[in-house]
């Protein structure tokens, strides 16, 4: 046995350092400074979330979904809001994306770190095509609605039409670029109302005189103003339709709240009051909570939906424990400058013009639900809860 042991020892000793050196290294590794035991460990640094230092990439016009991608992850990668990416692609919170699918990532300015692209010679104007809106044109060319309106002498009540050329920046509206005459297009004319099809040379005042009415009446009937543009082929309503029965409101639902539901309703109302939200906004929040969770702070839901408003961690509404905090969940639904979720989601106060929207449309703009008509069914009851629990 001894010869074999000697052979093994002689085989390994030449490879490493001398035994004396190895012993010294081992002693160095094992020994600790005298003050090491007294030094507290920085445990508090382990409790917080790691700081993300990566900057968002500049968003391309479109993105091809890769395996493992989620809408929220794609939005975060390019510094966008999940709700905007959903809206640009006609998706809802419950939509499924799949590898190879192309998603539009347009509508926002490039990330701050990315230099603005050099203006192209053709970017000074835009020729309107069917389906264009001033908002969409502004987003496409990286400008604003107000800038386009100012550059073309338009107002928010003005009508644009296919073939029209719009200046995109400081071009003077005094000498507009000539545009080909638009082809007649079908206008949505109220059933039963008398109408006039605009021909070249027509003016609102001339049309009003022809039909023995006034320009003001025509403005009111057609949602126009004195700054509006009419064009050949456009249908102008010249008399009001005969009275018809008012469109039926959605069937209204009602319910009495138990203790848990009443407490949640009172919380939603209280937070709305703190944030200065109008009664209409608070009523929208109450109806939304009733539709989504039955006014209960649920720890389950469709897919990963949670809480009073069934917000989803996977789409940027927060971590599960944050969403299950009813106070925070309500503040995130309202949104606005004090939104605890920041820019990761879009609340009611972040929706431009929400006060003028139909009740159910305002709720749907936040929730992006597959069943948008359900919110309006609780409108009457929501105001009653507001009066009772507010």
Name a few traits of the molecule.
Membrane-bound Lytic Murein Transglycosylase D, Chain A, two-stranded antiparallel sheet, two-stranded antiparallel ribbon, 15 helices
Structure description:
With 390 residues, the chain is mostly helical. Among the domains are: 62-104, Roll (Membrane-bound Lytic Murein Transglycosylase D, Chain A); 121-167, Roll (Membrane-bound Lytic Murein Transglycosylase D, Chain A); 195-237, Membrane-bound Lytic Murein Transglycosylase D, Chain A; 259-389. Helices cover 35% and strands 5% of the residues. The protein contains 15 helices and 6 strands. The chain has helices spanning 2-12, 19-30, 44-47, 71-77, 82-88, 134-140, 145-152, 204-210, 215-222, 259-274, 279-293, 320-323, 326-334, 359-367, 379-389, and strands at 62-64, 102-104, 125-127, 165-167, 195-197, 235-237. The chain has a two-stranded antiparallel sheet with strand order 1-2. A two-stranded antiparallel sheet has the order 3-4. The longest helix has 16 residues, at 259-274. It is globular. The chain starts with a helix and ends with a helix.
Topology, pairings included?
Layout: H1 2-12, H2 19-30, H3 44-47, E1 62-64, H4 71-77, H5 82-88, E2 102-104, E3 125-127, H6 134-140, H7 145-152, E4 165-167, E5 195-197, H8 204-210, H9 215-222, E6 235-237, H10 259-274, H11 279-293, H12 320-323, H13 326-334, H14 359-367, H15 379-389
Antiparallel strand pairs: 1-2, 3-4, 5-6
Helix pairs in contact: 6-7, 8-9, 10-11, 10-13, 11-14, 11-15
